[in-house]
Specification:
Elements (H helix, E strand, L loop, with lengths): L8 H31 L12 H36 L14 H8 L3 H9 L3 E5 L5 E6 L2
Antiparallel strand pairs: 1-2
Helix pairs in contact: 1-2
Amino acid sequence: MIIRTRRHPVFHSIDLVLTSLGWIAFAWLITNGIVSLLIDSPTTSFLNINPVLPALSTLSAYAMVAAINTGLLALWAQSHRRFGKLFSSPQKSAYRPSLPSPHPCVSLYGIDPLRQNELRQNRYSVIHHNATGQITRVETAS
């Protein structure tokens, strides 16, 4: 499930640019590393480290890009925490389903308002339902 929230266009564009740059850098680094490994011909020497060096330099470049991305993400989070209210667009309040009044519960589930209040006050309750959804038995801890 993907949850989408409204964001200010500035933050959305910053996120889009940073993500695009990250994927472009990753694609460039991986192709550069694979091409350099394919171009270098392996030698017959057992302890030759030359074929490993391009992989190590590529791996160090990956680590550097990851560190830069981590720093940018941390800076973005801090700035969003401090200045996010300035750029936030007016949003509707979050969806909060309203609790039904006691009277519909009586008709829907067969619970009278007194029993419903008793269920709300207890920390532990076990409610048994039948196949149609009606409550058949309620167990509460005292």
